[in-house]
Design goal:
single chain, about 0% strand, globular
Length: about 190
């Protein structure tokens, strides 16, 4: 196989580097993550995922209310904070479960590159596929960049996903128990 060279996102050249990154993540994600150089700052990742968030907002417009645009700053902030927490967890989990080193900056870089399918998260049906693709890209990033086993990477990614799903089911059940009218639908 011929050695490939990839262009990675640079915040000082966003228009020149954004689409080549997306193209590489679609065509050859394994090679893309294998050749990824270490991130020294969070700036490029923040800028890259900010573009994703803004694109997701506009893609979701036909499927949501126009008022959603006014929530953009809140959404942007919450997603950046969430990615930061996720990258701290991922760095810790790689260290504990896979006995490898992964800095929080590198975990953040993997997470932001893997987040690009989330542009379609608000689109019916595509949103579920985008979420699965996001998890798959994170898995590829962990396996390819960290050189850990596929099982370890799957465990690292799936533990929080399972906790989130179980918590959601518990919360919905609790809300229905406290407010039974939620289960009954609309009044007649």
């Amino acid at each position: 196989m011929q050695d490939q060279s990839f262009e990675y996102f640079e915040s000082n050249r966003p228009m020149e580097t954004f689409l080549p990154v997306i193209k590489a993540l679609i065509k050859t994600p394994k090679a893309f993550f294998e050749q990824m150089s270490p991130a020294y700052f969070f700036r490029d990742g923040i800028f890259f995922v900010s573009i994703i968030i803004f694109l997701a907002t506009f893609v979701s417009m036909p499927f949501s209310n126009v008022l959603f645009l006014f929530l953009l700053p809140v959404t942007w902030g919450l997603l950046l904070v969430s990615l930061r927490f996720w990258s701290v967890y991922m760095a810790w989990a790689v260290r504990v479960f896979a006995k490898q080193k992964l800095s929080t900056r590198q975990a953040f870089q993997i997470s932001t590159y893997a987040a690009f399918p989330m542009v379609f998260v608000a689109v019916p049906v595509l949103g579920v596929l985008a979420s699965i693709w996001n998890l798959y890209l994170m898995w590829v990033g962990l396996v390819s960049y960290c050189k850990i086993s596929g099982k370890s990477a799957a465990m690292i990614i799936m533990i929080p996903v399972i906790i989130l799903l179980v918590s959601t089911v518990f919360l919905i059940t609790l809300l229905i128990a406290v407010f039974p009218q939620l289960a009954g639908g609309l009044p007649h």
